């Protein structure tokens, strides 16, 4: 445990801890998304598009909670501030979804990349966009 604390302190001094925590919880959000998607389809027999929307929403709720608490250490002064932050988070996640879809279209249709390569590229770019949105536009201190 002491080695973990030393490593964490070193990463915090270098300014990397926040980003590593973001990546860690982002991987868990992906697992939540996939698990809920297949649970909806396999257990509840929900149409795959409905399952996609439900899993996207719940994975983003998970992301909001983990990002707020453990990545950006954001504190809300009131319920209104909390819900305002949540709505900003979901708005920027919707924007990121639009970016994801647009990039997939461009990379598949115009650049002629395969699905796998296009998806890897879009997920890296969308992940960076989500991090920047969260750090500078969602979990920032408002006046």
Describe this structure in words.
- This protein is mainly alpha-helical.
- It has two domains: 1-73, no CATH class; 76-143.
- The chain has five helices and no strands.
Compact overview of the structure:
Helices cover 83% and strands 0% of the residues. The chain is mainly alpha-helical and 143 residues long. The longest helix is centred in the middle third of the chain and has 32 residues, at 79-110.
Tally of contiguous helical segments = 5
Distance between the termini: 38 Å
Strand content: under 5%
Number of domains: 2
Number of strands: 0
| Unreliable segments of 5+ consecutive residues | none
Bin the helical content. Answer: over 70%
Nearest-integer average pLDDT:
93
| Main sheet: strands, sense, barrel | none
Outline type: globular
Helix/strand/pairing class, anyone? mainly alpha
Please trace the helix and strand order, writing H or E for each element.
HHHHH
Rg for CA atoms: 17 Å
Membrane topology: Multi-pass membrane protein
Subcellular location: Membrane
Protein name: GtrA family protein
Organism: Tetragenococcus solitarius
